[in-house]
Amino acid sequence: MTPVSDPYGQNPPQNPYGQNQPPNPYGQPAPPPPAPYASGAGGGYGAPGAFPGGSDPMPPKTDGISIAALVTSLLCCLAPLGVILGFVGLSRTKGGQRKGRGLAIAGIVIGLLMSIGTAVLGVVIFVFADSVVTPGNAEVGQCVDIDEEDGTVFLREKKCTEEHDAEIVGIAKVTSDNLDEVADSMAAYCVEAIDPDDLAKLAPYAQDVNAVIEDPEDVSVGDHLVCYVQPDDELTEPIL
Predict the structure, then answer these.
(1) What is the band of 88 on the pLDDT scale with cuts at 50, 70, 90?
(2) N or C, fewer C-beta in 10 Å, the chain?
(3) Buried b / exposed e across 147-162, counting CB within 10 Å, b at 16+?
(4) How high is the pLDDT of residue 45?
(5) What pLDDT, on the 0 to 100 scale, is given for residue 33?
(6) Bigger pLDDT: 138 or 49?
(7) Helix or strand (DSSP H, E) at 157
C-alpha cells in the first residue's frame, strides 16, 4: 500500500517532548533534559548531604566554670575564688574540648589583681582605724593630730616624737554628780579631770586646753570627756 504523502510537501511535525529531535544546526549536541528532583535524606533539590551521615557535628560549648571565674574575679570579696575557678577552667578548656579559655585566663589575672588590691586596701583601713582615737579609748599622754569638720572633732594618734597637733592630758567619765558641770563647760571641768601632779607641767599651756566628748549637744551619764592641749605651734615632743 502506498503511503499517503503530505499534501503540502512538509515533514511531519516533531514530538514536542524531545523525541526524534532534528539535528542541531550548529553541530553541538542538544542539552540533556533537566533531572527530576531527588528525594530522600541528605539535602533537597538533588544536593547531597552537607555532612557525612546526614548530621551536623555540634561545636564545643563555652565552659561555665570559665565564665564563673571571670564573674567572681570582678567581685572584691570573691576574687580569690575567681582565681581558683580560673585554673579549673584552664584544665577544662585544654585542647579545645570547650570554649572559654580566654575567660579563664582573664579570671585568673583579674582575680589576682583584685585580691592584691583588696588586701592592700584592708591593711590601709586597718591602720587608719587603729590610729583613730575616740573618747572611749583615749589615754592620757597620747599625742594626736586633730581634724575638725562641721563642728565634729576627729583625733588621730601620732608618735610624740613626730610633729603633732595636740596631746591628751586628762580624761573624766560623766556621772550623775558631774553631769551639770561638764554640760555647762567641758574645758573648765578639765581642771578636775587633769591629775594635780600634771597641772604644774601644763601651766604654760593653760590657755590651750580644749575638750571633746561623744556628743557635746547632748551630754549624758556614761560619756567620756577628753581634755587635750593644742597650742598654736606644732608639738615635737611630749608635754607630760
Answers:
(1) very high
(2) N
(3) eeeeeebebebbebee
(4) 45
(5) 60
(6) 138
(7) strand 152-158
Note the pLDDT tens digit of each residue in 125-177.
888 777 888 898 999 999 999 988 877 888 999 999 999 999 999 999 999 99
The Cα-based distances of 24 to 124, 143, 147, 211, 226 in angstroms read: 97, 117, 109, 121, 120
Closest CA to 210 of 195, 230, 237, 193: 230
> Cell 585554673 appears where?
87
Given a contact cutoff of 8 angstroms between Cβ atoms, the answer to whether 147 and 193 are in contact is no
User: What residue has cell string 561623744?
Assistant: 214
Among 86, 68, 74, smallest CA distance to 117 is for 74
- The model scores a pTM over 0.70: no
Q: Which residues contact 163 (CB under 8 A, 6 or more apart)?
A: 234, 235, 236
Do the beta carbons of residue 194 and residue 201 sit within 8 Å?
no
Rounded CA separation 15/52 (Å): 43
Answer whether 98's CB lies under 8 Å from 59's CB: no
Longest dimension (CA), the chain: 164
**Count of positions (residues) in the chain:** 240
Specify the amino acid at residue 138: A
Give the position of cell 574540648: 97
Q: Does residue 79 contact residue 118 with C-beta atoms inside 8 Å?
A: yes
Name residue 173's amino acid.
K
